[in-house]
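Lay summary

Proteins are chains of building blocks that fold into shapes. Our project writes down both the chain and a compact code for its shape. Here are two examples, one after the other.
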Amino acid sequence: MEVTKKKVLVFGSGISGIGAAKLLEAKGSYVTLYDGNEKLDAREVRQKLGEGSRAEIVIGAFPEELYDTLDIVVLSPGVPTDLPIVNRMRDAGILITGEVELAYEAGKGDVLAITGTNGKTTTTALLGEIMGNYKKTFVVGNIGNPYTTASLEMDEDSVTVAEMSSFQLETIIDFRPRVSAILNFTPDHLNRHHTMEAYVNAKKNIAKNQTEEDYCILNYEDVLTREFGENIRAQVLYFSSKRKLEKGIYLEDGNIIYKNGEEILVCRVEELNLLGTHNYENVMAAAAMALVYGVPADIVRKSVLAFKGVEHRIEYVTEKKGVVYYNDSKGTNPDAAIKGIQAMNRPTVLIGGGYDKDSVYTDWINSFEGKVKKLILVGATREKIARDALACGFTDYQFAETFEEAVLAAADFAQAGDAVLLSPACASWGMFPNYEVRGEKFKEIVNSL
């Protein structure tokens, strides 16, 4: 995809869009940065681009005359690919792509890429630690560091560890990781993808350009990823937390064992700083990706044992008056939030609710299994979750009008020996710009108690 002297529209002025615009200008493109949010201030957007930028900035209604001038459109991940305006661009023969493809073609070195509904950030952060102890490494993507921003710093000997969302993978063209991983598939973002099939197919794009020279690491215990492994060109290595594998990486009697020709004991789970079977699966995926790439086993082991997890994912905050507080703001869908519940080892007061992604909450409610003593609900989904709770026979819930009220109510109800867990099972939008801000606010309130 040649971008030099091409007229390129970057659709979306968030962190990904700004990164894409800067990269395109560095590559010699004629850039227009567009955002349909008419409340934005064009001067503030200009400041984000920095001094020297010649990009045209368009805010609000899309100018009709632009349709006939564009060669390429780069969609930010938050822009749905089926918007009428995007469909019109596509029908006009304009090449539609995304920031991942743009960054991949500009970057150098090998790419190790991770997707899946849950566990992506932890697995990416851990793999980034492992690879960083082996060679020059860039950790990019959905983890919060734009791929486009890092791409010009890469060289042939560097490696890129990329967390890829379904939104990012929708628009790839030639993106080809040397090693990929799909951790799991559970319903998420159905308000964007409309069907589970479309969501899964977007995730599967991570391996579509891989060849027999590449590897794909898959979850044997997820029926969709297991079946996917039977129909791709890349060499497949499975991980399992429930059974011994003849080839792959698996959990047996508290040991994480890698078997691909030789058998390697990666670690015992009691040596890890991470809690829960879901985290053992994340460790297996990251370790397998590093080992098939050729990282020595001793570097993998030392990195795994030193890893302390990621912020906002079952993060210990503090203990006050015998109550332990955990921040799991990254539990933005029911399946992720189930993992938060499963990791708790004491009676729990749970804070849930937020933006509605068309999720169903019954499995989440059923996972409480006597562990959750009170559910504090806040946000747009609170009444929907309450209905699902009643349908499951769970009645120990109450509503809060604001997020701060919810945290204070949880703290007031909790007794010594309990845990207070923020694990919302919902996105943060509508109350916060992202789950990170929500998690930081939770920690701020808790620490001020």
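And here is the second example, written the same way.
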Amino acid sequence: MLLDKIKTLAAQHQAENIAIRRYLHANPELSYQEFETSKYVQAQLTAIGIPFTVIATTGVLGIIEGKNPSKRVIALRADMDALPIVEENQINYKSNNDGVMHACGHDVHTTILLGAAKILWTLKDEFEGTIKLLFQPGEEKNPGGATYMIRDGALENPKPQGIVGLHVHPGLNEGKLSFRKGRVMASADELYISIKGPGGHAATPHQTVDTILVAAQLIQSLQTIIARNRNPQNPSVLSICSIHGGNTTNVIPSEVKLMGTFRAMDEVWRFQAHDLMLQQAKGIAIATGAEIDFKVDVGYPTVDNEPMITEAAWRLADAYMGKENVEETEKRMGAEDFGYYSQVIPGCFFRLGVRNESAGIVHNVHTPHFNIDEAAIEQGVGMMAWLGTQL
């Protein structure tokens, strides 16, 4: 039975896959700088015998053809970049690159796809269709490496009927998977705001434009837009996360800069909110005499799991993991550029549990102590290979 063969191979390759993950973890590279990581992936695929092309500068696109290659085409995706974080884990595979860390698990994702690729190549005479392996750069930085992979033809010639990706989930115990149909992750747009006006002495505010006060008005009014214009059943978040202006107690500054993020689960509301924010800024500028430059840097779209492929993947996960080990995942206001793929073809983005409280593996992604229970690698490898043969 194919499922049993995949499980056996995933177990047999586990030690090797852990070694791959530890090498990648110790040698992280930032978004769009994954040159050595890309070379490593290419070397691994070459050793297996899998043909590939290099696209999107550091991206790698592998192809595995089973029986009747044109009967079905499925894409499997992993991201490769790391974050500008100083690692604080005391482990023997700690990051060798100062200030760079695989704090979001992309080392795990790359390892899992490489491990699945080896199984799929071994079993290529036992399933039908073609499997495309997408090793993607730049998931952590706008405009998202997925856009470059798509631009360079990752979803063409042949075009997949669907795409699958996974993400480590430190809130879910090792040994568990989670899925959700429909909207599962938010869009993410960056906000850059500059408020300017004639500054001056704090004792004579009538001779200035109080840019600090204008900034406070704008921040409050932006929150009102989200609170009073959004359907309460439609999740959305606006957070101003940076304020820079002034450097002493008695001078009103001539400029205040704000930065923040806006996230939504609905693409129509997302762009309506952009218009409302720009209108609000324009109105406050007129009312206060300030000059307000409000830039919305449009980022990743919502990750919207297509119901049919997600239902199929969920049922396959039940068969592989046991129904008791597969849960419904929560909606998350975090963002993922996997959403670009799911705008083009049906997509399923699911979660892999990596938490182990008894071992102290409890820290969230994007933190200096993030780590995983490496037993999850075997489950991720097997699941990706299983889905690749069955979807």
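What can we say about the second shape? The first strand starts at residue 52 and ends at 55.
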